[in-house]
Amino acid sequence: MKLSTNLPTYATGLQQVLTALRATPPPHGISSEDFKWESRYAIQQDSNNLISLRELGYSLSDYEDSILDMTSLKGPFKVLTNAGEILLREACLKLETYSRSSQFIISKRTRAADRYSKFIHDMVRDRNFLLNLSKIAQAPLIPHLIRNAATQVNYYYPDDEDGKDKKIAKWHLDGMNFVFNILLSDEAEFEGGDFIYFKGPKNQFTSRLNDNWVATSPSKHVGDTIYVHGSKVFHAVTPVTRGKRISIILSMYCPYLPEIDSNTFWHVAGDDGILATLKNWGAFRTAKKMASTAYTAIDCAPITWEDLG
Questions:
Q1: Where is each Fe2OG dioxygenase domain found (predicted)?
Q2: Of residues 111, 119, 102, the one with CA closest to residue 38
């Protein structure tokens, strides 16, 4: 199958600054829900068939051993029971009313989804759920401290008739390291919308971007989850040509390794605007210094390196 290697790449440098000047923060609101998160919705997956950063092509000249052994990619796999998937999908469908358009990376998305949805808020703070994600990533995780970016719902449709409003995810690296992409549409509901990724280290992306170095995920069903080490694996979503594709992106943070967080101010500002990011960035810098209270802050028993097995 021929893959879409000709998708645009996200803005960097001066273009990223200009994008930040045009960006707007998420709106305020609370979504009405008549259902609640329950810990039994989280299911444990084995940590087999993980592709490490070392296997992707990174070496000691890039990162130390402890980083190279972290997972670069896994999936698709399941993180929720069928009942949990159905409720998460319902919650995310309701959140489209809070979505905003963007020219940065994702065309249409709802940032800070856990601010609007109690179900999502409780899900990403549940220890059983977090432990599963931590085992996949090979690092103890909490929701990212930059809350606007921690939970984001993406909505994809076919192009407008004039072709000016493509709903895509450009080729990009995430500001976050530990990123889980949960598909919330079934293959019968849309065409196109493939999750694709570059099968090599980021410094080879521009020189080797061809079909031999690009792979597509076989995600086809509601709940199918892909994990990527987002700041080190280039990835994108091809245009949807029919129907509607929804996914939720969970961006996580390892409180024991604050020094490896890859976020930059301008990457976050590209999505949320400068003023909102100034406020959040200060809180983020402060929270990074408080690893010992990271799990207490989300009312969750700590996950340690020993818990990863």
A1: 147-269
A2: 119
∠ CA 121-126-130, nearest 5°, is 105
Q: What does the domain layout of the chain look like in residue ranges?
A: 13-308
Other C-beta atoms closer than 10 Å to the C-beta of 184 total 24
pLDDT tens digits in sequence order for the chain, 309 residues long: 344 556 656 556 655 555 555 556 566 666 767 799 999 999 987 666 788 999 999 988 788 888 888 999 898 999 999 999 999 999 999 999 888 766 555 568 898 999 999 999 999 999 999 999 999 999 999 999 888 889 999 998 887 654 455 566 688 888 889 999 999 999 999 999 899 999 999 889 886 777 788 999 989 899 999 999 988 999 898 888 899 999 999 999 999 998 888 877 776 776 677 777 787 787 788 888 787 889 999 999 999 999 997
How far is 254 from 41, CA to CA, in rounded Å? 23
**Residue 230 token pair:** 């987002």
CATH class, 13-308 region:
mainly beta
The answer to pTM > 0.90 is no
Taking the C-alpha atoms of residue 127 and residue 114, their distance in angstroms, rounded to an integer, is: 16
Q: Which residues pair with 71 in a beta bridge?
A: 52
Among 265, 198, 206, smallest CA distance to 232 is for 198
